[in-house]
Design a protein that fits this description.
The structure holds two protein chains of two kinds. By secondary structure, chain A is an all-beta fold. Chain A has no helices and nine strands. In chain A, the strands form two sheets. In chain A, strands 1, 3, 4, 7, 8 and 9 form a six-stranded mixed β-sheet that branches. A three-stranded antiparallel β-sheet of chain A has the order 2-6-5, with no helix packed on it. Chain B is mainly beta. In chain B, strand 4 (about 35-40) and strand 5 form a beta hairpin. Classes of the chains: A mainly beta, B mainly beta. At the A-B interface, strand 3, strand 7 and strand 8 of A face strand 5 of B.
Chain lengths: ~110, ~120
């Protein structure tokens, strides 16, 4: 149950697009289209942003999109806004009926 | 409105036990899988355990297997986590979360501190 690999930090200017990667293995990300992404503000509970690789829950901005290629999933945020500054976590279902998170990525809006 | 309210956190000595509870409302609790996810201070999210809708199937992270037990009472809309043989590394905010594989709704968390 090793954690998925995410960059510790990413940054971008307002209006730009950024992409956060999430690398797993053939035992999790590579086999299952069950990758989800969560946004977390300091001191707050996480919020679901993307599920099943690329689906958006009702109420989530279409500036957020997800994709997957092989063992790596990605979250893209377009038209970056100050309110997007937060921590982002990926999560995947794994072969042994467990879930595994990434280490988290701190997004800074410059 | 979906509400998940955790309780039972606090300070416990290494080797001790603690029981967390989560009161659910605003949705049909008995139809949903439920999870516990934890977050150590300043660290990332870590999945701990999940239980299916009728309570007959459970899964655990290797780090807590044999020490933690997840359970639920669908009549009382309550999720529980019995934590035994606690270690310093179990110190974290514990979140109650609904969903099968997708973690739809999160509680605000309860802090567990394991220290002498």
């Amino acid at each position: 149950q090793s954690a998925l690999t995410q960059p510790a930090s990413v940054s971008g200017s307002p209006g730009q697009s950024i992409t956060i990667s999430c690398t797993g293995t053939s035992s999790d990300v590579g086999t299952y289209n069950l990758v989800s992404w969560y946004q977390q503000y300091p001191g707050k509970a996480p919020k679901l942003m993307i599920y099943e690789v690329s689906k958006r829950p009702s109420g989530v901005s279409n500036r957020f999109s997800g994709s997957k290629s092989g063992n790596t999933a990605s979250l893209t945020i377009s038209g970056l806004q100050a309110e997007d500054e937060a921590d982002y976590y990926c999560c995947s279902y794994a072969y042994n009926s467990t879930l595994v998170f990434g280490g988290g990525t701190k997004l800074t809006v410059l | 409105e979906v509400q998940l309210v955790e309780s039972g956190g606090g300070l416990v000595q290494p080797g001790g036990s603690l029981r967390l509870s989560c009161a659910a409302s605003g949705f049909t609790f008995s139809s949903y899988w439920m999870h516990w996810v934890r977050q150590a201070p300043g660290k990332g999210l870590v999945w701990v355990s999940r239980i299916n809708s009728d309570g007959r199937s459970t899964n655990y992270a290797d780090s807590v297997k044999g020490r933690f037990t997840i359970s639920r009472d669908n009549a009382k809309n309550t999720l529980n986590l019995q934590m035994n043989s606690l270690r310093a590394e179990d110190t974290a905010v514990y979140y109650c979360v609904s969903g099968h594989v997708v973690l739809d709704y999160w509680g605000q968390g309860t802090l567990v501190t394991v220290s002498s």
